[in-house]
Every structure is written in structure tokens, then in C-alpha cells.
Amino acid sequence: MVEALWHNSGVSDLHGSSTPAPQWYPDPANPALERYWDGTSWTQVVRVAATPSPPLIETKKPTIQPKRAQPRVNASLQSRDVHRDPALDMPLAGWWRRFASGVIDTIIAWVLTALVISVGSPNFVNRWQAQYTAYGEEFMAKLQLGQVLNPPPALMSATTTLMLVLSGVTALYCILMLGGSGATLGHKVMGVKVIKAPLSPAMMKALNFPEFTMEKPGWLRAISKGLGWALFSTGSSWFLLVQLVNVLMPIWHKRKQSVTDLFASTLLVKTRVKDTT
User: Fold this and answer.
1) Structure pTM?
2) Do 101 and 75 belong together in one domain?
3) Are residues 113 and 192 in the same domain?
4) Which end of the chain, C or N, has fewer beta carbons within 10 A?
5) Same domain, 171 and 243
6) If the chain, 277 residues long, is cut into consecutive pieces of 10 residues, what is the mean pLDDT of each piece?
7) Residues 183 and 177 sit within 8 Å (Cβ to Cβ)
8) Same domain, 21 and 77
9) For residue 47, what are the β-bridge partners?
10) Do 191 and 113 have their domain in common?
């Protein structure tokens, strides 16, 4: 739109560059406002237009006009309220897609954990399985007599070790995948990825942030999300309620965020935008 104004007003190039200069231009969403163009993209900063835009006057078309890159205007910007949450215009992933990717990643984490344990202690899994089987049989026998049998200390110790290894592997897997590519293997299979969650429109305007883009979460958010995922998915029974809320929360949250998304300030969006689930 900025370049169109230049062509119609007869201005060839203010700065000799291939993109419009950073300054105030008529807002594509509201002619009564001006929006600041930072030289690369539209920002969230707007102001009341100082004077009405002058009528366009037809001028003689230049004989030679170099091709210039036009400012990219978000398709939803023209119809979106400047106070609307920009996250709502993103292709947010639906609940079933999130759940399926989580199941895939959980299976991958368990497989990786089994490999780590088999390398570090080849007989650990066999010992744990034998202890668990023996406890299960004795537990059922006591239950038929109306008695309750507590797990033996050896089984409790082995189970604790197993869960600690699982937590570490889960966190490391999530951190490396999200920090490196913004998506775990489960996310890639289901056509989704993790991005930074935008600030509220008021904060973006106050801090003069540029228009929101779908950026990778970065290592800090990847660490936060990885630790949160490991804690909520492999924690003790005390975390059962938190785990349930974490799984179901995207169903009613307006940004479709889970507890770990809120903790890490991230969003889960579709990479295949044509998908509707």
C-alpha cells in the first residue's frame, strides 16, 4: 500500500532503497489512523492521522520504473481490530492434534528411557519387572483376604529410579527438539509446531513491538516447556490433577494453551494451515 501511494504521487524512491522508508503511513485497517512502518513490516503502533490524506492525482507514468518490494500487510490486518489478541489470528492447533502428538512423544520418551537404562544397567528392567510381577501376584492374594499389601522397599526404590530417568530423558528430548527446530517428533507427525506466544495488544503497543510473527520458542522457552512437561507427565500421584488440567485446558482456553504453554509462554500452531482440526 505504501508503494502504491508513491507510484500515484509520482515519487520514485525517497532513499534509493528497494523498500519504503521507516515512517508513518495511512493505516490499511483504518484510514482515520496512521500506522508506523519500520522499514520491514507494519508495527502495532498507530496514531490519529494529522491531516486527511490528499486526493490522489494522476500523473504521467515514468518511462522506466524499477521494481520495488511492497510492504507485506497481514491479510487479517485490514479486517482486524487493533485491540484484538493477535494470537487469535494464528492457526492454533486443535485439541485432538495436541493430544495425538503428546501420545507419540510419550511413547518416544519411554523407548529412549528403555535404551538409556539398558545401556547403563542391562539387568535393571528385568529385575524391576520381576519385582513388580511378584508384588502384583501377592497384592491380589492379600486383596482377596481383605488385606492391603504395601509395595516392598526394593520395588519402590527401583520405580523411583525408573521415573527419575524417564523425567530426565523426557525433559532433554523436549528441550533439544523445541530449542533446535521448534517441534518434537510428535509435533512434526501431527503437523504442528511450538512458537512464542505474543504479548497482549496493549503491551505490544506500549513496548513498540513489531507485528507478531510465528517465531521458534527459543532455548529459554524450550527449557521451561521441557521441564514442565517432564514434571507434569512423570510426576507422582500428587500431580494427577495438574496432569489432567494440563491435558484438557486447551479445550476451553481462548488461546488453546495448556499449563505448560502458560508456564513457558508458548503457542501450538498448525504447520499445515489448510487443516481444520
Assistant:
1) 0.62
2) no
3) yes
4) C
5) yes
6) 43 50 79 78 74 52 54 45 73 93 94 91 86 89 85 88 90 94 95 86 57 75 90 65 86 91 91 62
7) yes
8) yes
9) 34
10) yes
